[in-house]
Design brief:
binds ligand LLP, about 30% helix, 13 helices, about 450 residues
Length: about 450
């Protein structure tokens, strides 16, 4: 077996989505793994495990890569917005906002987080295929851009906006009918999708909205899916969207925003080879420029809304190894103190990950193991056939690229508390999300009076 040097697959400083590990990953003098200048095993001892660790420099670099690439390749106005469904917290919202990004939210919870982080309504975009009246009301009152997804949004908003009151700032989402190669659960651009207006409905909705005094349609939106490595679908999308933009303008809407969604893939395992942020933006921007020129329409403000490619490779999760089960001739299971509740992606999408030991990241591998979670579910396996040095109970295991869709999709399955999250930078670590406690787990339980009286 060759030496496991995963931490070294981290070379593209300008595009963090192309690396396996955070940009600041390095070894200390004893060849132990460090991120953000902090020894991972020390973080595990200080904050406990499982522990989400987010490297601030990687997040900021990804934000800058989007900002700079848009400035470099698109002569019109542009704005990257962070899709906070990937990982939503007050601190992360503040970081992306300080880098000049807006924020995409899909629920009252994500919206409240962005607002509490101090983000202005004009920089927030509210999505959702079934927004509640309360969510629409909060969005409207906070002056956010509401991305209308269906007729229901329009009907509810019509009742919320009082006559003579301030107009609702809208963006219209439609399904562009684009197929792309990614897991079917995270594809959204094909016609059989629950998101957005069908392209056949587009014209009539635009006409309807042009007669609504309460509505100000500022933008057109589409998103085709997530973890995409091809460039062609987004180039095609840019063209289709420009056609929709022209249609909206011809109907009389002063549409200035064209939001092409997110979706750029990241490297989870060595063989993944996603495009760089710069290339992705360049292709999309070029395609929009060309389409606008062909249609003789003025350049819109270009918006994109990446989630995964901003935050995924900034994050690692540290676990403590516990039990070991060897099945001769078949498999060796190493169980860790987390699993599908803090990372549901392997069981949901069969996602692959990379991992190594925190304190022996480059020792020669002697062990082929399957990393099992601690949940009562046979499918709770985070990695199969991982090569590690001989590993014992108490060792710390680091799984890379867990910054996106791990914390945000975590659960309390088996009543296991959610992990804490720390932000690391220049040798300091700061808690940004507390670990759930037993009290937190019991907090929402209510015992009916009659049970208390009987017992
Ligand atoms: N905009 C919209 C409207 C979206 O629906 C999404 C992701 C994004 C932007 C951000 O896409 P990204 O840049 O992160 O690919 N839970 C799945 C991913 C679901 C993505 C949902 N929408 C996973 O763990 O792979």
């Amino acid at each position: 077996m060759t030496e496991n040097r995963l931490y070294e697959v981290s070379q593209d400083k300008s595009s963090p989505n192309r690396n396996l590990s955070p940009l600041t990953t390095e070894l200390d003098k004893d060849k132990k793994l460090m991120v953000g200048g902090c020894l991972l095993s020390e973080l595990a001892k200080k904050y406990g495990t499982p522990l989400y660790v987010i490297d601030e420099e990687t997040v900021r670099s990804a934000c800058k890569a989007y900002k700079n690439s848009m400035n470099d390749h698109y002569p019109g106005e542009s704005l990257p917005i962070y899709a906070s469904k990937a990982n939503s917290s007050l601190t992360l919202s503040k970081i992306v906002a300080s880098e000049g990004l807006g924020i995409d939210v899909v629920s009252a919870g994500e919206l409240i987080t962005a607002l509490n982080a101090g983000i202005k309504g004009r920089d927030i975009f509210l999505h959702g295929n079934n927004k509640s009246k309360e969510e629409l009301e909060l969005g409207y009152k906070s002056g956010v851009n509401i991305v209308i997804d269906n007729q229901h949004d329009i009907e509810v908003l019509e009742k919320i906006v009082s006559p003579g009151g301030k107009v609702a700032k809208l963006m219209l989402r439609f399904t562009p009918g684009i197929e792309c190669h990614t897991h079917e659960y995270i594809r959204t651009g094909h016609l059989d999708s629950k998101f957005g207006f069908d392209p056949d409905q587009l014209k009539s909705v635009l006409i309807y909205l042009s007669k609504c005094p309460w509505a100000e349609l500022n933008g057109i939106h589409a998103h085709i899916g997530s973890q995409i490595f091809e460039l062609k679908p987004h180039k095609d999308l840019a063209k289709i969207m420009t056609e929709a933009l022209v249609m909206a303008r011809e109907i009389g809407h002063p549409v200035n925003d064209l939001n092409i969604g997110g979706g750029l893939g990241i490297r989870y395992v060595n063989s993944d080879d996603p495009p760089s942020i710069n290339n992705w933006i360049k292709e999309v921007a070029t395609s929009i420029l060309k389409a606008c020129e062909e249609k003789s329409t003025h350049l819109p403000r270009l918006i994109c809304e990446p989630g995964r490619s901003i935050i995924a490779t900034a994050g690692v999760t540290i676990y403590k190894v516990g039990s070991r089960k060897e099945i001769p001739g078949l498999r060796t299971y190493l169980s860790i103190d987390g699993g599908m509740s803090d990372n549901p992606r392997p069981i949901t999408y069969q996602s692959l990950y990379s991992a190594c030991l925190a304190d022996r990241p480059i020792s020669s591998p002697q062990d082929k193991v399957t990393i099992a979670g601690k949940h009562c579910e046979s499918g709770d396996v985070l990695l199969k056939d991982l090569h590690l040095p001989l590993t014992k109970s108490g060792d710390f295991l680091v799984i890379f690229a867990t910054g996106a869709y791990n914390a945000s999709m975590s659960s309390n399955y088996n009543r296991i508390p959610r992990p804490a999250a720390v932000l690391v930078q220049n040798g300091t670590s700061d808690l940004i999300q507390r670990r759930e406690s037993s009290e937190d787990l019991l907090r929402l339980d209510v015992i009916p009076r009659r049970f208390i009286e009987v017992n």
